[in-house]
């Protein structure tokens, strides 16, 4: 059974999170490894751990100095664990964390093919589809 845990960038699981993000998110698009980490130092990191292995991750990046608005980013679940509820566990944990932190709004640049995953948590599509890193995305947001 997986557990969800918040980690800092000095935690040993952070390196495993980085590798998972490379494997699931970046390499399939031809983006260089570690090429999307510019927000890591200021973000909150959440990992799903099973048998000491990082099988899922997501980050929450504050978007304003007051930390009242944040962006859910870099959501990844290992291919072996996709479709088993790990993503839902991560998002539910992140939403509870955000609420406890006083964050009022969360946005996502969601890949269009997974937008429906986020709408089940109350995220709403705002605006037209757009292209980012060469693939179609939707802008989503939710208020807490």
What report would you give on this structure?
With 144 residues, this protein is α+β, with helices and mostly antiparallel strands. It has a single domain, classed as Aminopeptidase. Helix content is 25%, strand content 36%. The protein is built from three helices and eight strands; from the N terminus they run E-H-E-E-E-H-E-H-E-E-E. It has helices at residues 12-26, 86-101, 115-119, and strands spanning 3-7, 44-50, 53-62, 69-77, 105-111, 124-125, 130-132, 135-143. Strands 1, 2, 3, 4, 5, 6, 7 and 8 form an eight-stranded mixed sheet that branches. The protein is globular and about 40 Å long. The chain starts with a strand and ends with a strand.
Short description:
This protein has helices at residues 12-26, 86-101, 115-119, and strands at residues 3-7, 44-50, 53-62, 69-77, 105-111, 124-125, 130-132, 135-143.
């Amino acid at each position: 059974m997986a557990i969800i845990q918040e980690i800092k960038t000095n935690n040993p699981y952070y390196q495993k999170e980085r590798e998972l993000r490379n494997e699931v998110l970046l390499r399939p698009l031809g983006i260089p490894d570690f090429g999307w980490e510019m927000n890591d130092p200021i973000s909150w990191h959440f990992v799903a751990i099973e048998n000491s292995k990082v099988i899922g991750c997501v980050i929450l990046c504050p978007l304003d100095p007051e930390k009242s608005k944040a962006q859910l980013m870099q959501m990844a679940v290992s291919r072996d664990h996709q479709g088993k509820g790990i993503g839902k566990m991560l998002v539910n944990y992140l939403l509870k964390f955000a609420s406890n932190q006083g964050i009022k709004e969360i946005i996502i640049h969601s890949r269009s093919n997974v937008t429906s995953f986020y709408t089940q948590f109350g995220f709403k599509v705002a605006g037209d589809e757009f292209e980012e890193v060469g693939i179609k995305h939707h802008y989503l947001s939710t208020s807490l």
